Amino acid sequence: MTPPPGTLLAAEDLRKSYGPTVALDGAGFSIHPGEVVAVMGPSGSGKSTLLHCLAGIVPPDSGSIVYDGRELAGMSDTERSALRRSEFGFVFQFGQLVPELTCVENVALPLRLNGRPRKEAERAALAWMQRLEVDDLAAKRPGEVSGGQGQRVAVARALVTEPRVIFADEPTGALDSLNGERVMELLTEAARSANAAVVLVTHEARVAAYSDREIVVRDGRSRDMERAI
Ligand SMILES: Nc1ncnc2c1ncn2[C@@H]1O[C@H](COP(=O)(O)OP(=O)(O)OP(=O)(O)O)[C@@H](O)[C@H]1O
Ligand SMILES: [Mg+2]
Question: Which residues does the UniProt record annotate as the domain ABC transporter (predicted)?
Answer without folding.
Answer: 9-229
